[in-house]
Write a structure and sequence with these properties.
Structural class: mainly alpha
Shape: globular
Mean pLDDT: 86
Strand content: under 5%
Oligomer: single chain
Low-confidence stretches: none
Helix content: over 70%
Order of helices and strands: HHHHH
Largest sheet: none
Number of helices: 5
Length: 131
């Protein structure tokens, strides 16, 4: 992929992520349930990514068949992702969009802190601006 088209995709992705909090809050204000918003959000993302991923599998001759262990790990990852989105979207019903998004966006700080506290892992100096 060319550099300018990659940058355009990054800008588009940042805009969509930035818009997600207010968009979800608007759906909740209109009476949508947090679970339905989370489901529709993940369904839309999957449908957008499916053609690209299928094309990549065909292009790289990657079999589209998963082993039972891979299905299990996929289901576990999906369950954690669902729990994340349901709790985040539900949090928007009890607080402001700003407070909820600010808390979610501080995740790298929590990871750096708890990585050090629990595992004595130091965050590389060059990674600190990203946290």
């Amino acid at each position: 992929m060319k550099k300018h088209s990659s940058m355009a995709l990054v800008v588009f992705a940042v805009c969509m992520v930035s818009y997600s909090g207010p968009m979800v809050k608007g759906a909740l204000n209109e009476g949508a349930s947090p679970i339905s918003v989370a489901l529709l959000r993940m369904l839309a993302a999957a449908l957008l990514m499916l053609p690209y991923e299928a094309r990549q599998c065909v292009r790289r001759h990657i079999p589209m068949k998963l082993t039972p262990a891979q299905w299990g790990l996929t289901a576990l990852a999906a369950a954690f992702l669902a729990a994340h989105y349901i709790t985040w979207i539900t949090s928007l019903t009890g607080t402001s969009t700003f407070a909820s998004v600010a808390l979610v966006c501080t995740q790298p700080l929590f990871v750096a802190f708890f990585s050090y506290v629990l595992f004595r892992e130091r965050t590389p100096r060059r990674a600190l601006p990203g946290a």
